[in-house]
Predict the 3D structure of the following.
Amino acid sequence: MNKLIKGAVTGAAGIALLLGGAGTFAAWNDSTPIGDQNTQIHTGTLSVAKDTSTPAGWYDVTKSATGTSISSVGSYLMVPGSEIEFRQPLTVTASGDQIAATVSFTNPTLQNGTSADSNFVVSSKLVDASGAVVSSTDNIPAGTHSYTAIVDVTFSGTATSDQKATLNLGQSSVTLTQTLPSSK
Amino acid sequence: MAGKHRSIDGTRSRRTAATLLAAVAMALAVVTAGVIGTGGTYAAWSANVTLPGATLQTGTAGLQLGGVTALTRTLASPSSSSAVVTITNSGTAPLRRFTTSATLATGSSTALASAVKLSIWPVANGTTTCPAPPTSPAPATGSWATAPQWLAAQGPLAAGATASYCFLSSISSADWVADANTTATVSVTATGTTGADGSGWSGSTTQSFTLTDPPASTSGAIDNNNTAGTSLTVTRSAGANGAVCFAMHVTSTDGSKNPWQLTIHTSSPVFLGVPFASWTWPQGTASFEILSGPDAQGNVVIDGVGGTTGSNGTGNTKFVQAGAPYDLTFCVRSTS
């Protein structure tokens, strides 16, 4: 009996302490059901996937932004001033009230042997169907959207070395990150 | 004993509750601080897609000269000659700016290299015989000692592309004589860069050729076609730059005006280097002419010009004036 009392007292003290910030403790309470007891709550989605209906590929954009298709990047020989890019069509699906997301990239590494090569600049970007760049602060709204992820490799026009070089371009990634709605 | 035990249990329970409360409060504080610290929002969902890597390769810059060795010449005479020289982009990168230079090998005659004048102009690929040089745009000009930048106006040359140029070389008679028995080995270098401002990769190529101004021949014979009443003697000596010089002495032995003629035979074709300017005829203003030659057989016939018809001559007789001896000195040189 003493143990029960002690337990009850300890529990009460704990609750009292948890609620201590309020400074009050309700001794009486009552309840009533509200709303539809059969309500289901659904969540939305946020996904990004490669668009398999449009093939990815490499393009030579040295002379124009549109570029010309490179049939085999492994056989393509870069020279100072040349610029090539990999284009990967993506489908972004975002659903949910108040859904919004931003995009970020993990740039691939580009290594000549075992070290980076300062004659090359690698960058990534996401463009929408009109070609407009989606910045890192742009919120992608709800819906199904087509984007293209672009990994660009530029060989400096003033480079005096790197003839007959073989470079390894690592994997890169595109990440969509949900932005929580602004608080009240 | 039991009360004491209860007292110990009660103390432990209070301590446990206090510890739990502190931990919960601290966790709430940390989470709350984290949320507030990010500005009130934080990412809940994220989605990711991976893009593949690739193996990239770079090309090369290369430039090749063709036809320079065909500029090798033995200057048989002070005539001009031409040859077609090509440049080919042998790399995989387009070349956009070009420079050229010419250097002389050790022991080469700078005088000869300077004496050989150049005119260089672009021609269509496939040209084998150079046409006359254009007037506009004017060819690049210079000499092999101060070669012009003959590729300065060359536009971008794509990988594998070729451009052709005509090289016209010439040497004056005076220089040809003056520089006899000398050679000049010239190295021609052409460089192309991938950058239009000279930056980037560069491809360079060098080819050499040799110019030879041959020595004079010292062999041969002299015919004194003097007639009766005329004495004509010739002595031969070595002249400057390998030339052969002749000193002719003509006299009228009978006191009359007598024709004379001198024929020089050499073992190879001859050329009278600066003949009329350097001839010495101390007895007056009489002049001379090359009556025939030089021909392929090495014959040159000279005689006096004009004169007064004398008892032993008719018409435009080449004669030796009665009385005074005539002395004539001249130099010739062979072409090989």
The radius of gyration of chain B is 45 Å. The longest strand of chain B covers residues 182-193. Residues 1-11, 27-41, 272-285, 306-317 of chain B have pLDDT under 50 and may be disordered.
